[in-house]
Amino acid sequence: MVSIPPIDLQTGIAQETLLRRITNRIRQSLELEDIITVTTAEVRSLLRTDRVMIYKFHPDGSGQVIAESIYENSLPSLLGLNFPADDIPPHARELFIKSRVRSVVNVDAGEIGQSPVRDINTGEITSNDILYRPVEPCHIKYLTAMGVKSSVVAPIIHEDQLWGLLASHHSQAREVVEYELEAMQLVVEQLSVAIAHNNLLIQARAKAEREVIINRIATLLHSLPTIVLQPALEATVAAFNGVGGRLCIRHNAFNFQHSSFKALTECLIPGSNCFQLYVCGKQPIISEQNIYPILEQYSVWREHYKSGQYEIWPISDIYQDANLRILQLAFKPTKIRSILMIPLHYRQELVGYLSIFRNEIETETLWAGKVDPDNRQIYPRLSFDMWCELKQGQAQKWTDAEIELAREISKHFASAIQQYELYQQVQSFNENLEKQVHKRTLEMQKTAEQQQAVFGVINKIRESLDTDTIFKTTTKEVCRLIKSDRVSVYKFSADWGGEFVGDFDATSTNYLNDSKLGINTIWNDTYLQETQGGRYRNNETYAVDDIYKMGFTPCHVDNLEQFNIYAFVLAPIFIRKKLWGLLCTYQHAGPRQWTTAEVNFLSQIAGQLGVAIQQAELLVKTQQQAEQLTQTLHELQTTQTQLIQTEKMSSLGQLVAGVAHEINNPVNFISGNLTHINEYAKNLLTMLNLHQQELTNPSKNILNTAEEIDLEFLIEDLPKSLSSMKIGVDRIRQIVLSLRNFSRLDESEMKAVNIHDGIDSTLLILQHRLKAKPESPGIELIKEYGNLPLVECFAGQLNQVFMNILCNAIDTLETSKKYTLENPKPGKITISTAVGVMNDNINSAVIRISDNGSGMPSNIRDRIFDPFFTTKPVGKGTGLGLSISYQIVVEKHGGILKCNSQPDIGTEFWIEIPIKHIFQGNRE
Q1: What is the C-alpha to C-alpha distance for residues 617 and 296, in angstroms, rounded to an integer?
Q2: Which of 629, 575, 631 is closest to 607 using CA atoms?
Q3: Strand ranges in 656-801 using DSSP code E only, listed in sequence order
Q4: Phi, psi at residue 440, to the nearest 5°?
């Protein structure tokens, strides 16, 4: 035995350093390959042995060296080599799992030591004592063949399963102490943590990759307006690393008569065409003699899913299942060996199959020496030299992750196919609807042609309301359209006889021909006279194809022959509910078979002809009534306007006159007494002055009273107060005079007046609206009066004109956004007067009233003098002010009233009346 210098691990420093480095490596990276590579190197450096390796078990019990660290090629490399499951017997595996036993072998001493971490029965933690016993000769030979004299093995446990082994090999015999086992135990525990972290990383990556695949396929299935399944199938095959795939779904399976879908099994019956197949990549080869032309029609699928449980069916090897013999024939010419059968179901109803194919593969395994699979030969391994085992025709198993991915993808396919079925249903509905529409269109086309002909005749009838023109147009157009020999209009008389009032003969070039039948021809039918219209009273159209086959009386036949009539159609003409006459269609050349469309056509024309006749008869009455109504309306509007004007002026005049009268009486009383009061005050002051001169020594009481009432100020201020009162009374009298001047109730006749007085009186009344208000600034008034003589006019009515125009100007400025409290620029109203000249050199008075408001567009300016037209909100204006003003100026005074206005500049009203009245207009 070679003695190795002991490592001072008992202090825990080296052990702590080792664990820190391994722990840091685990924290720095979640990649297991990096962690185990560093771990083997660190442990070998710590233990100072020739080789440290990590051995990982496969699901079948075999294992592979996945990491190793060797000291200067002292032992051969085993990295990547596989070891059979028999190399580690079952009882040893059980000790590794249950007691976490560490195994120590000394080949030269022939001993094997075991140090369990837990008691195999109780599971309690035990000490690190090593219990030695003789080792089996087979094991000695096994290690000797590997070139190993000393071996230490610690199990790596993950989730209570034997994940792998941490093994330390030395080419020379060496003593293993307990603290080495403790160090290896700490390492394998850290490796368990690293494996758990790595598994979480792998799961997260797999989940992310699965979501990417699902999103990509879902995007292909749902991103287009119409479903395109081929790209989605190809993407799905690629996601499973398949070599081919198939998608079989229902197609056109909707029964319109019974409003139901066929099941997928019905659609897959041979000979059915209600399924759709998409394929990509490699496919099975089905012989032409096979009764099932497609793979999905084979009974194996129906048998497998007949229970209604539509679970994914992973078939790893189709040649290992006796139930799939029928499929083996189709896949035999190919290398396909594995199938993933994905049923697509929506709401527990199977709608299709999605299948993925994988080829068989070749496997290559590097073994540590050749392994004899015959378990009867129990002998030690003689060589660990690498031996490559090559297997062909191996199946690829479907993993749980792939099956879960298939389950998610199937949901998206099923949803898309459900949409596809709805799309098919809509398409089928549309096709069926198109057929019905086409059929209906043909029917309606024929009807439309007939109706077009009817409308054509109707339009020509309606072009005139003259009865003669209507009869000519109707008979000619009907004769042309139905290609008859003659069409006539027959009108009943009071005794139910009648005459022809309209006629067109297609066999003659002249409208009025020389035949017996024509306009003004009287035809009194005894049957119609006795029955007062016969069947035609019931709005019945009568068609006769051949007069000789109808059973007519000989007298009636003779009568028809007299006019060369061998076939005819008679349609009643009604005006309101009264039978007016008949629309007659005759055939002179011989019998004729009338069609239903022709009879209906004639019936419709007769109905429209009745309407046209009624309209023509009412036309004259309507025109007369219209003329009367127009005249009456004009008179009514004039009267209404005058009444409104009269009432308004009367009310305003009475109000103003009443106020002026009521104010005038007390004002006259005050004015008359102010003269006496003023005289009395002077006398009292004179008397007071004399008393002061005579009474040189007034008493103390007099002095106190004089001081208390401030006698000096009273003597000085009393005349001033009386003077102010006189001025105020004079101002009130002026206002009263202005009000009376405005009302002019005592001046109903035309007389010469001062126009300026009327304007000033109006401004006095509107003075309160010119002042500033909290919501709007004041309005500046500019008066530019010229030297006007007295003007003969109706003063009160002219004042009303001034009032209307000034009120509109003030309203415009108050509502204009140009003049607000924030905008210091005030609104302006300018009133100017001058002497002008009208037509025929008549001197006139011109009054212009303008504002700088928002103005009016031309379409409003042209209508402002129309009665009842207003631009003000509802309830703010009647639309009569300017209309009445126009009548007063133009009709009453023979003058001119016009308006000039431009948007955003302002409006000006021009009033011009003769100074001497010569126009004899209407007077009140």
Answers
A1: 82
A2: 575
A3: 751-753, 779-784, 791-793
A4: -65, -35
